[in-house]
Write a structure and sequence with these properties.
Oligomer: single chain
Low-confidence stretches: 1-27
Helix content: 25-40%
Mean pLDDT: 85
Radius of gyration: 17 Å
Structural class: alpha/beta
Number of helices: 7
Distance between the termini: 12 Å
Strand content: 15-25%
């Protein structure tokens, strides 16, 4: 069944992980409460089965990397688990708010000014809009971007912007679909939010390859069939 997470591939993927976890990563598998449970997820695109009977469990304090190449159903699964799309069949139970998909630009560029875009995102999460916008700009390291429309922002600033705009939203579940970790000062400024998410929430990190595994230090690695 194309796209299902299987334990045999999980064993193969573990060999790609670093032999010792990075500083701050958990050595033992987390045993916190379940924040996301998916059972029997099926998704078809026409006659093609993208996800076939997928089961997945995520606990608080756990970071799970999901490996899948293009066409394996990685982005489809991320959108379903984030609540942006529906499976054809199957059940999903979420134990709290899901943060906006890390690295995705949905919702940006709709108001003509980044500060207003961030204000809408803040309102949806029950946050103070101006304070949230300032926190994102401070993380990026450029307070002047708030007055710009999203499409006028320097491309080099968009990755840290989209990361900060997701990780700074308090949530029980964070889902990163191919999003890279910011580099340089932005990564240092975002570190407290990343550490809080790792400690107090459940994190799913979708990636097409194993090159990011050392940087994110997952507790488990799952692989999608055909990935």
């Amino acid at each position: 069944m194309g796209g299902a997470v299987i334990t045999a591939r999980e064993s193969d993927a573990r060999r790609k992980a670093p032999k010792s976890p990075p500083r701050g990563a958990s050595a033992a598998r987390p045993t916190g409460p379940v924040v996301l449970a998916a059972q029997g997820l099926v998704k078809r695109h026409g006659k093609r089965v993208v996800l076939g009977g997928l089961d997945l469990l995520l606990r608080r304090g756990e970071l799970v990397a999901v490996l899948g190449q293009r066409g394996a159903g990685r982005t489809t699964l991320a959108a379903i688990l984030a609540g942006q799309s529906l499976p054809d069949t199957g059940r999903i139970r979420r134990g709290g708010r899901v943060a906006p998909l890390v690295g995705h630009s949905a919702g940006f560029g709709t108001t003509g000014r980044l500060a207003r875009d961030l204000g809408l995102r803040a309102a949806a999460a029950g946050l103070d809009g101006p304070r949230f916008a300032r926190a994102v700009a401070e993380t990026v390291g450029d307070p002047f971007i708030l007055d710009l429309p999203f499409d006028r922002i320097d491309p080099s600033l968009r990755a840290p912007l989209l990361s900060a705009a997701a990780w700074l939203v308090p949530a029980a579940i964070y889902i990163a679909d191919g999003g890279l970790l910011p580099t340089g000062p932005a990564r240092l400024r975002l570190a407290p939010a990343l550490e809080r998410a790792r400690r107090e929430a459940g994190v799913l990190w979708f990636t097409a390859g194993a090159s990011q595994l050392r940087a994110i230090g997952p507790d488990r690695i799952l692989a999608l069939e055909n990935g």
